[in-house]
Amino acid sequence: MSFIRQVWYHNLTQELAILNDQLFKFPVIAMDTEFPGFLRSTPRGAPEEHLYQDLKFNLNHLKILQPGLTLMDENEHVGLSWVFTFSDFDEQTDFSSPTSIQFLKNNKGFEFKKQKKDGIPSTEFRRAFLPIFSSNRITKWITFHGIYVLLIC
């Protein structure tokens, strides 16, 4: 088994079954995402209302590209990792930061045509992941930009 597993529409069911089985041994999930940048960034020390307005604007205008999940146990032993590539984002028509798009292409090897053609509709991911999410086997979530991650997904 590969340590980082790439998940597309064609192998979503198979990979979620593996993830579900692994939760018995590794009940902690660390989650990160790739998304097409920030449209609004909140300055440090800004009032909470400003933070909320910027957060709401970004959430309402951006589509997630990839959530990544890594399983661990309570002693921080790492299990498998998955990268789920969503198909919803259209580089030509959806909101994004041009700088972020270039970074993803140049530094991460992101292929937007393949993502559109072979990716997972986010609604299908939600439907398939919900039973795992609500299974009570996940004991802890660790996130980077967690407020964005949990609200977008």
UniProtKB/TrEMBL annotation:
GO CC term, one of those recorded: CCR4-NOT complex
Coiled-coil stretches: none
Lineage top rank: taxon: Eukaryota
GO molecular function: metal ion binding; poly(A)-specific ribonuclease activity; RNA binding
Annotated keywords: Cytoplasm, Exonuclease, Hydrolase, Metal-binding, Nuclease, Nucleus, RNA-binding, Transcription, Transcription regulation
EC number annotated for this UniProt entry: 3.1.13.4
Subunit structure of this chain's protein: Component of the CCR4-NOT complex, at least composed of CRR4 and CAF1 proteins.
Protein's UniProt name: poly(A)-specific ribonuclease
Naturally occurring in which organism (per UniProt): Cucumis melo (Muskmelon)
Gene name linked to the record: LOC103491126
